[in-house]
Design goal:
23% of the residues lie in helices and 19% in strands. It is α+β, with helices and mostly antiparallel strands. The protein folds into three domains: 246 residues, Rossmann fold, CATH 3.40.50.1460; 57 residues; 304 residues, paralog of FGE (formylglycine-generating enzyme). Strands 1, 2, 3, 4, 5, 6, 8 and 12 form an eight-stranded mixed sheet that branches. Strands 13-14-15-18-28-19 form a six-stranded antiparallel sheet. A four-stranded mixed sheet has the order 26-25-24-27. Helix 7 packs parallel to helix 9. InterPro entries: Caspase-like_dom_sf, CTDL_fold, Pept_C14_caspase, Sulfatase_Mod_Factor_Kinase, SUMF_dom, SUMF_sf.
Length: 661
C-alpha cells in the first residue's frame, strides 16, 4: 500500500495584515482527520504555539508559520528522498494568499504585504521541494484566497503546475468566506465532509471530490447568507482527475478508469506517466495482475529506450581544454582536467536564467542571531538524466580582498591577506557539493573513461543527497570532464580564488555568517580539538593540526557546539548571499590549483596557480570532523591529487565557464 504524508499550515494572526478567525482551526481539523481517520504515516503541523517538529538530525525545527521557519522546513525535511513514487504528499494551507505577476504566493505570518515576492512563499517552490521527497503525487489544498480579512479570489490557488493536483477554495473573481456558525471556512468545512464520506458516494478520486465541492461549498455559502463561492480544481495532466486520493475508499470503477489512462499513456509512449499510473493501481490493489504486467512492460520499454546511444557517444575526437580561470594557457595534461571545446560544431542548449530570493542568516561575535536579510540570486538548472539535476548560481565578476584579515586566528602565513585585491571573471558554481545522486547520474550517462576510471560508490556515508566523498582530485576532474561531455558546457573545478570569492559572497569576516560559527549554521566539530573522529577505523582525533593547537570547540568569542560525526545532506544549513550551501564544514572541497605557500603567488586575474614538480592540490572549506577555525572562508589545506584523504571528509563542487552566456 502507498503511504500518505501531509503538511498542514493554519494562520490566524498576521503581523502586518488583518487577522483571520478560523484558518488555524481549519488546519487543525484537517491534520486531525489525516492522522486519525485516514491513518497518514506522518503529519506536520504549523501554527502559532504548535510544538517543535523533530528533525532527522540536529535541533528540532520551529513550527510557528514564519517565512524563515517554513522555508527552512521545506529545505531541510525534503532534501533527502524518503518516499516511493506511488506515495502521496499532501499540503494544506489556510491563510492569506496573493497572486503577483502570474505567480501564486502563500503569505506567512510575518509577510510584508508591500513586498510579497520577497517575503511570501511561492507555491511553485513548495511543489518543487515536496517532489524531492520521492513521491510522484503532490496534492495541494489551498484555502488561501483570503486577503485583508476577506477571502479574495485573486489570492493563491489559480496557478496550474504540471504534475500536481490543486484544489483551491474559490474561482477567479470570487471571494471565499469564513462561516462564524461553523467555526470554519466554507471550503474547508465542505472538504472535511467530502473526505469522510464512505461507501458508494465516497470522494476517493480527484474528479469525485471536485464534483462534490463544486456543489456543496456554494450550498454552504447560501445556507449561511454568503455570496457564491465555487472551488476550482486543476489536475495536470488531465489523467490526474482519475487519481485515487484515498485508496481505502476506492471503488472498482475508479481502478478501471486509471487502467484506461495507463494503457493510453503506453500507446503514446509516455512510459513515465504509464509507470506512475500502474504503480498507483498496485498501491490500491496489490494483487492486480494488470498492474503487475503493466509495470513489467513499461520497465522493459524504458530499458530499451535507454539502450539508444546518446549524442555524446557519437563523438570521435577528444578536445583538451586550454584555458581556465583567467584564461591562462596550460600545456596538455599539466592542468590535470579535460572538458568540452568544440564538439564538432555542436553547441549546448542555452540555459534558462532563473531567480530566487534566499534568506541570509548572520551572527555577531558571540554567535547570537542578527536580523535576517533577503538576497535575490540568479541561477540555472543543469538536468542530468531523468532523476538528477544540478543548480548553479550565476556569480558576477569583481574584485575582493582574498585571505584572512589581520588578527584572524590562527594567523597562518599561507592564508594571510594578499597585498593587492583579487579579480575574478563571472562564472557559475554549483549551489551544493556534488551529491551521491549526481555522481552516479553522470556515470550512468557517460560510463566511458575520459582520463581514468572512477568508483560508482566511493562514499563512506551513504545517501542520495549526502555529498559524494572520499574522492581524489583526479576523481573530481574526471567527473567534471564527463559532465562536460554530457551537457556540452565547460565544467571544471573552481580555482582557489573563485572558491573563496564564492564562499565570501561579499563578506569580509571569518565566515560568511559573521565573525564566528554555530552548529545551527554548519556541520563541524564543535566539542574541542583540531580534528575529531576516525578514518578507516584509525583514530585521528587531535588537538594539533598543521602545527597549530585548537583546544576550544568555539571560534573566538562564539559558543562551543556539538559533533554529529558524519556528513549531512547538501542543503542542510542556510545558504550564503550567493545562494550557496555549506561552504563551511561538511566536506573539504577540491580546487583546481596547485598548492602555493602564500596567496600573493596566485595569478591576479583569478586563474589557477599551476606549477610543475608537485602534485599537491588545494582544499577549501573544512569538514564535519574539523574545528570551526579550519572551516573559515580563508582556511587552506592541501593534498596529493591522487589520494582521497581521510575517510568521508573530501568532496567537491564544480564551476561552469559562462563563455558570454
Amino acid at each position: 500500500m502507498s503511504e500518505n504524508w501531509a503538511i498542514c499550515v493554519g494562520i490566524n494572526r498576521y503581523d502586518n495584515i488583518k487577522p483571520l478567525a478560523y484558518a488555524r482551526q481549519d488546519a487543525e481539523a484537517i491534520a486531525d482527520f489525516f492522522s486519525k481517520a485516514a491513518g497518514f504515516k506522518g503529519v506536520y503541523s504549523f501554527a502559532e504555539d504548535a510544538p517543535p517538529i523533530a528533525a532527522d538530525f540536529g535541533q528540532s525545527l520551529q513550527s510557528s508559520p514564519t517565512f524563515i521557519n517554513l522555508r527552512r522546513f521545506l529545505r531541510v525535511r525534503f532534501e533527502e528522498r524518503f518516499l516511493q513514487p506511488s506515495d502521496n504528499i499532501w499540503f494544506f494551507f489556510a491563510g492569506h494568499g496573493k497572486r503577483v505577476r502570474e505567480q501564486d504566493y502563500l503569505l506567512p505570518l510575518d509577510v510584508d504585504p508591500g513586498n510579497v515576492e520577497e517575503t511570501g512563499i511561492p507555491v511553485r517552490y513548495v511543489v518543487e521541494r515536496l517532489r524531492r521527497s520521492g513521491a510522484e503525487n503532490v496534492i495541494l489544498l489551498l484555502d488561501a484566497c483570503r486577503n485583508e480579512g476577506s477571502r479574495d479570489g485573486q489570492g493563491a490557488g489559480l496557478q496550474k503546475i504540471k504534475g500536481t493536483v490543486t484544489l483551491s477554495s474559490c474561482s477567479a473573481a470570487e471571494f471565499s468566506y469564513e462561516i462564524e456558525e461553523l467555526s470554519h471556512g466554507a471550503f474547508t468545512y465542505g472538504l472535511l465532509e467530502a473526505l469522510q464520506i464512505q461507501g458508494k458516494s465516497s470522494c476517493a478520486t480527484v474528479e469525485r471530490l471536485d464534483n462534490y465541492l463544486q456543489t456543496r461549498v456554494p450550498e454552504i455559502c447560501r445556507l449561511y447568507g454568503k455570496p457564491v463561492q465555487t472551488p476550482c480544481t486543476f489536475a495536470e495532466p488531465l489523467s490526474k482527475r482519475n487519481f485515487i486520493l484515498l485508496p481505502a475508499a476506492a471503488r472498482a470503477e475508479d481502478i478501471a478508469a486509471l487502467k484506461i489512462d495507463a494503457f493510453q499513456a503506453e500507446t503514446i509512449d509516455d512510459f513515465l506517466l504509464a509507470e506512475q499510473l500502474w504503480w498507483r493501481i498496485l498501491a490500491v490493489d496489490p494483487a492486480d495482475m494488470d498492474a503487475r504486467a503493466g509495470i513489467k512492460r513499461v520497465g522493459e520499454a524504458l530499458r530499451d529506450r535507454g539502450k539508444k546511444n546518446p549524442w555524446w557517444q557519437t563523438i570521435t575526437r577528444r578536445q583538451v581544454l586550454t584555458s581556465a580561470g583567467g584564461g591562462l594557457a596550460m600545456a596538455g595534461g599539466i592542468a590535470g582536467w579535460r572538458a568540452w571545446n568544440a564538439m564538432g560544431g555542436l553547441r549546448p542548449k542555452a540555459f534558462e536564467r532563473l531567480t530566487e530570493f534566499v534568506i541570509v542568516e548572520t551572527v555577531d561575535a558571540r554567535g547570537d542571531p542578527q536580523p535576517i536579510a533577503r538576497r535575490k540570486i540568479s541561477y540555472f538548472v543543469e538536468q542530468i538524466g531523468q532523476n538528477a539535476r544540478m543548480e548553479l548560481s550565476l556569480l558576477p565578476g569583481g574584485d575582493f580582498p582574498m585571505g584572512s584579515a589581520i588578527g584572524e586566528f590562527p594567523n597562518k602565513m599561507s592564508e594571510r591577506l594578499r597585498a593587492s585585491p583579487m579579480r575574478v571573471r563571472p562564472f557559475a558554481i554549483s549551489r551544493t557539493a556534488v551529491s551521491q545522486k549526481q555522481w552516479l547520474a553522470v556515470q550512468d550517462l557517460h560510463p566511458e573513461i575520459v582520463d581514468r576510471a572512477i568508483s560508482t560508490d566511493p562514499s563512506s556515508f551513504k545517501g542520495d543527497n549526502l555529498p559524494v566523498e572520499t574522492v581524489s582530485w583526479q576523481d573530481a576532474t574526471e567527473f567534471c570532464s564527463r559532465l562536460s561531455a554530457i551537457t556540452g558546457r565547460l565544467y571544471r573545478l573552481p580555482t582557489e580564488a573563485e572558491w573563496e570569492y564564492a564562499c565570501r559572497a561579499g563578506s569580509t569576516t571569518a565566515f560568511h555568517f559573521g565573525p564566528t560559527l554555530t552548529d545551527s549554521l554548519a556541520n563541524y566539530c564543535g566539542t574541542g580539538g583540531a580534528v575529531c573522529g576516525t578514518s578507516f577505523t584509525r583514530e585521528v582525533s587531535s588537538l594539533d593540526y598543521d602545527g597549530v593547537k585548537y583546544p576550544d570547540g568555539g571560534y573566538e568569542n562564539g559558543p562551543s557546539g556539538g559533533f554529529l560525526g558524519k556528513t549531512t545532506p547538501v542543503r542542510s544549513y542556510p545558504p550564503n548571499a550567493f545562494g550557496l550551501f555549506q561552504m563551511h564544514g561538511n566536506v573539504w572541497e577540491h580546487c583546481l590549483d596547485n598548492w602555493a605557500p602564500d596567496l600573493d603567488r596566485l595569478p591576479d586575474d583569478g586563474g589557477a596557480f599551476e606549477v610543475g614538480g608537485t602534485d599537491l592540490r588545494v582544499l577549501r572549506g573544512g569538514a564535519w570532523s574539523h574545528n570551526p577555525a579550519l572551516c573559515r572562508s580563508a582556511s587552506r589545506d592541501r593534498m596529493a591529487e591522487a589520494t582521497s584523504g581521510w575517510e568521508g571528509r573530501v568532496g567537491f563542487r564544480p564551476v561552469c565557464e559562462l563563455n558570454g552566456e
